[in-house]
Amino acid sequence: MGRRIAGVIYILITFALVNEMSINVYARDNNKRRTKEKSGGFQKNICDITDRDSKVHCYCENTREPRNATKAECWVFNGGIPRDDLIWQSFASQPILQTLSFNVRVDGALGYIPTKALLYLQRLRSINIKYGNIVDVTPYSFANLTNLKEASLSQNQIENLQQYAFAHLPNITTLNLEENMIIDIDTEAFYDLPKLQKLVFTKNNISTIRNGTFQHTFNLLELDLNKNNIYHLNRRTFDGLANLRKLDLRKNRIQNLTEFTFAELWNLQELLLGKNDLRYISERAFDGLSQLRKLSLDDNKLASLPSGLFEGVRGLSSVDLRSNELHALTFDNIKPILDNLKPQNSNLLLEENNFVCDCRLKWMHSLRNETKSQNTKESLDSVTCKMDPPIVSSAYNKMPDAMDDKLDYNQDILHAGLTIETLNDKMNVTEKKTLPGDLSKDDANEISKKGVKRTVLKIPAETLPCPREAIKTTEIPPYIVDPVIPIQNEMKTFRFHDTNSAYMKLRPSFGSVVLWSISFRFFFT
Ligand SMILES: *[C@@H]1O[C@H](CO)[C@@H](O)[C@H](O)[C@H]1NC(C)=O
Ligand SMILES: *[C@@H]1O[C@H](CO)[C@@H](O)[C@H](O)[C@H]1NC(C)=O
Ligand SMILES: *[C@@H]1O[C@H](CO)[C@@H](O)[C@H](O)[C@H]1NC(C)=O
Ligand SMILES: *[C@@H]1O[C@H](CO)[C@@H](O)[C@H](O)[C@H]1NC(C)=O
Ligand SMILES: *[C@@H]1O[C@H](CO)[C@@H](O)[C@H](O)[C@H]1NC(C)=O
Ligand SMILES: *[C@@H]1O[C@H](CO)[C@@H](O)[C@H](O)[C@H]1NC(C)=O
Ligand SMILES: *[C@@H]1O[C@H](CO)[C@@H](O)[C@H](O)[C@H]1NC(C)=O
Ligand SMILES: *[C@@H]1O[C@H](CO)[C@@H](O)[C@H](O)[C@H]1NC(C)=O
């Protein structure tokens, strides 16, 4: 309180003095602008505006003296300020300002970047405009300022970045355009920005990026396009970004990644594609990314990966594939980067997929064993797969009853019976018989519909069934499944014989299968 009163007194005391100084400033700059300002160009000290009706008020750190402030925070209270209003010229009163911010306090009060003010601030290093309603960033908005290092225009309702919107700013390193509504970026919007390192477009409305948009930002290290509406990328989208280290494309609507999309980005280390709509990735989509260390593809709709996908990104040591629809991830997929996944700081995250329990997941056992990464271990420990009975029985040829070491003897047989039943459905065998045990038919149907979910690493690697190579899903599976492992055959024999009697009276061949499965269980527990 006391300070505030003192401040008011100070203002009153210095009012006359300031007026005098302002007149001096005006006099000094008069020659330059005589032709422009014909009428009443009384120039205020922007740091000491006492007029209550002023549309702009600034608080300057340390000083209210003219020509002495280095930092100013300005509030814009009233709308309708013309672009060439005298208030902007008043910034000439503080030509050594290095840091300037505008906080727009009234909706719609500032619809443009006040270039007319920036013109006088040749030492400016940082500008921040917030909560304005700037729709277009027009050519040379930042007045070719040679010392400007950072510009932030977050939350301003910007829709268009016009040609040369950001141009001739030889020292600019960071440009933040977060939370606007950018739809369109001219291909020459970024021009002659040789030191630009970081460009942020988080939370905008970008749906397409024109070819060559980034062709002039060749020193960019980080490009953030998180939370936009991008649905299409091609091999020209990222032209010019040869030095980029990090590209964030999370939360967009990308469905397809075509070949060589990132081919220009040969220094990229981190590529984030989580939370898109990815369904299809070309085998050569990541070609050229020889420096890539981290790739996130989580929360997409990938059902499989082309087998050579990681051939072109052999440096990869952190891969996030959680929450996709992967039914398999093969050793071929993972082989090019397998050794990178063993050190402590590596990551392979695979939870929440639709893996089918089969031998293509075998490598998970050995990686679990060999990796030093706690994250990878934990992730592998909780990866689940589905024992989809119809697929397993027709296209996979290993013992279905050796899968779960928690099943008891009775359930082993039941499970086998279940498999036979669904196999018969597939083969259009209509004959049905009651199987031994107490699992009701409804339960059985329920299990066969959903498939049984299991933890991959709890299934002994040796017992993961292998898919048969040449079977096409449209073909009816052969009646005799596989002569090498005669289980289905034997089950079938069992199936077609009278089973009113309990399993104790089974034919010797089936009994031996059951015994085999029991010994299996003992062996692995
Ligand atoms: C200008 O500011 C400097 C410190 O930034 C201060 O030492 C100096 O006294 C100020 N000059 C005037 C005229 O206020
Ligand atoms: C910035 O430079 C361009 C190109 O040299 C020029 O056309 C433009 O008038 C300059 N703008 C300012 C505000 O100096
Ligand atoms: C960039 O800024 C530094 C000081 O921050 C200055 O010395 C240099 O001249 C500026 N570069 C250009 C091209 O103006
Ligand atoms: C985003 O852009 C589309 C046109 O590309 C437009 O229809 C939509 O209204 C925009 N959304 C917002 C929030 O501005
Ligand atoms: C952008 O580049 C892609 C890939 O070369 C090309 O197919 C497409 O036609 C180009 N788009 C335009 C508008 O030039
Ligand atoms: C993605 O590819 C599929 C088939 O290859 C095509 O039908 C679809 O339209 C593509 N989506 C986009 C957004 O290009
Ligand atoms: C796990 O590692 C041990 C030695 O550390 C080895 O004996 C064992 O065979 C490995 N198991 C698998 C499944 O690779
Ligand atoms: C099963 O066989 C019957 C008669 O043989 C036939 O009408 C039916 O379409 C077949 N169903 C399937 C799924 O093949």
TrEMBL record:
Q: Which InterPro entries match?
A: Leu-rich_rpt, Leu-rich_rpt_typical-subtyp, LRR_5, LRR_dom_sf
Under the heading Gene3D superfamilies, the entry gives:
Ribonuclease Inhibitor
Q: Where is the signal peptide?
A: 1-27
Determine if ATP-binding is one of this entry's keywords. no
Q: SMART domains, from UniProt?
A: LRR_SD22 (SM00365), LRR_TYP (SM00369)
Q: Which UniProt keywords apply?
A: Leucine-rich repeat, Repeat, Signal
Q: Please, which domain of life does this record's source organism belong to?
A: Eukaryota
The protein's name:
Connectin
**Native species of this protein?**
Spodoptera littoralis (Egyptian cotton leafworm)
